[in-house]
User: Fold this.
Amino acid sequence: MSDSTPAMEHTTMWQLLAPPQLAELLAVSDKTLRNWRNDGKGPTYIKLDGGAVRYPMRDVYAWLDEQRNASVRSHAHRAHEMRPMEPKRFLDAA
Assistant:
């Protein structure tokens, strides 16, 4: 049985991560996160008054789910494009 309650799940979903926290979670650098923000990539972020960047955990979860789904679709597409190779025919040495 899980110790998680709906209130706890709601709190976790709205937890805000600072860029260094998210960078550690994703095993990327702060610079990578900054580049993603500049390029319109990566998880959705918010800017607080004063310019501090924060990532809502719910948006991080959603982005990770999108990445997983994109990977699965890409893998399935590549598998579909692969054609079975014809068996090599060797000359009889007779």
